[in-house]
Design brief:
Elements (H helix, E strand, L loop, with lengths): L2 E5 L4 H11 L4 E5 L15 H16 L3 E10 L20 H11 L9 E11 L8 E11 L15 E3 L4 E2 L5 H7 L1 H14 L1
Parallel strand pairs: 1-2, 1-3
Antiparallel strand pairs: 3-4, 4-5, 5-6, 6-7
Length: about 200
């Protein structure tokens, strides 16, 4: 029988990726919206703090173990921006296209070869709201920022995120390849190893 988990997110892209990675291990991921859980205010200053806030909130309101992800893009030439503000870089409401436009404008004077960046993902797993030992893992995915979007897949900054070892953007990868290479896929595999131990 599948173990139900609440995903502390309403992002359909994240839900697809987590289900693809966790379903074979007997977990059924339910989005927080299934329990009328709305997004908690992300008042943390780091990915870890925000992931913990999200996981506690989802546990409290759903009564289920929770998996929370806080992730974003850190661009070296922008001193780590957009960072924890990645999803709302261009303001509210969240808009991937507007975020990508703003990122390209911010990098307009930065030449190719100096546009290095990393996607970061922090995952937090809580058994219950007051779990004193949250499982926390983090992983990154290094690449570069393109001058123009490429590809139709993925979400967020994927059309601008160049994957040098594959010679494509993250949006041009198949879902399977992205899960294998990405910050989220790497963090989730680390989390599974941690839980298995």
């Amino acid at each position: 029988m599948d173990q139900r988990l609440v995903l502390a997110s309403s992002n359909p892209g994240k839900l697809r990726e987590f289900n693809a990675l966790l379903a074979p291990r007997g977990y059924r991921i339910c989005p927080q919206g299934d329990f009328s859980v709305t997004d908690v205010e992300e008042t943390g200053t780091t990915f870890v703090e925000n992931a913990l806030l999200k996981a506690r909130h989802a546990c409290r309101l759903s009564g289920l173990p929770a998996l929370a992800d806080d992730s974003g893009l850190a661009v070296d030439a922008l001193a780590g921006a957009p960072g924890i503000h990645s999803a709302r870089y261009a303001g509210e409401p969240k808009d991937d296209t507007a975020n990508n436009r703003k990122l390209l404008a911010a990098l307009a004077e930065v030449p190719e070869g100096q546009r290095t960046a990393r996607y970061w993902c922090v995952l937090v797993w809580l058994q219950h709201e007051f779990d004193p030992v949250p499982r926390i893992v983090q992983a990154s995915w290094s690449g570069e920022i393109l001058a123009h979007p490429r590809g139709e897949g993925g979400f967020g900054y994927d059309p601008l995120f160049w994957v040098p070892e594959r010679g494509v953007s993250a949006a041009e990868l198949s879902a399977e390849d992205k899960n294998q290479l990405s910050h989220r896929g790497r963090a989730l595999r680390e989390l599974m190893e941690l839980l298995d131990r």
